[in-house]
Amino acid sequence: RKEASPPRGADGGGSAGREALRAAVAEEASMDNMRAYIDCLGDDVSPDTGGDLPSRALRCLFALSESSGSRAERLAMVGGEFGPLVEGTGGTRALVPALLSFLGRCPRDSSEQYLTLLV
Fold first, then answer.
1. pTM greater than 0.85
2. What is d(CA 11, CA 21) in angstroms, rounded to the nearest whole number?
3. Angular region, 71: left φ>0, alpha ψ -120 to 50, beta rest
4. For the chain, percent of residues with pLDDT exceeding 70
5. What is the secondary structure of the chain as a DSSP string?
6. Dihedral angle, C-alpha 12, 115, 50, 34, nearest 10 °
7. What does residue 69 show for φ and ψ, rounded to 5 degrees?
8. Which long-range contacts (CB under 8 A, 24 or more apart) does 106-113 make?
9. In this structure, how many other beta carbons lie within 10 angstroms of the beta carbon of residue 115?
């Protein structure tokens, strides 16, 4: 599925911010990339819930939730607030509100809806 371009400024000023998101979701899942995963779920970056960026971000989040070795790491994942991926792109964001917002946009019984619920 093809991604729609986000509004200018929604991803750190254009293609550079979008490329940073693509690079983050292409790497092995890491807590260091939590802000990128959260950003990929936003309707400003990914209006199509079935697009490549949100799908990859959800897979990374699922991998993190499954591989987290410690309770503290799992708690940090759901309770943490993550700063901007690119300077000047806004304040901190938390995972659970981003997941709930994304879930509300997912088509009923879609693979994205199921994976979001698993995360």
1. no
2. 8
3. alpha
4. 77
5. -PPPPPPTTTTSSSHHHHHHHHHHHHSPP-GGGHHHHHHHHSTTT-SSTTSHHHHHHHHHHHHHHHH--SHHHHHHHHH-EE--SSTTS-S-EEHHHHHHHHHHHSPTT-HHHHHHHH-
6. 10
7. -80, -20
8. 106/49, 107/49, 107/50, 110/49, 110/50, 111/50, 112/49, 112/50, 112/54, 112/55, 112/58
9. 16
Taken as a whole, the chain contains a residue count of 119
* Per-residue pLDDT reduced to its tens digit, 17-69: 888 999 999 999 998 899 999 999 988 888 999 999 999 999 999 998 888 67
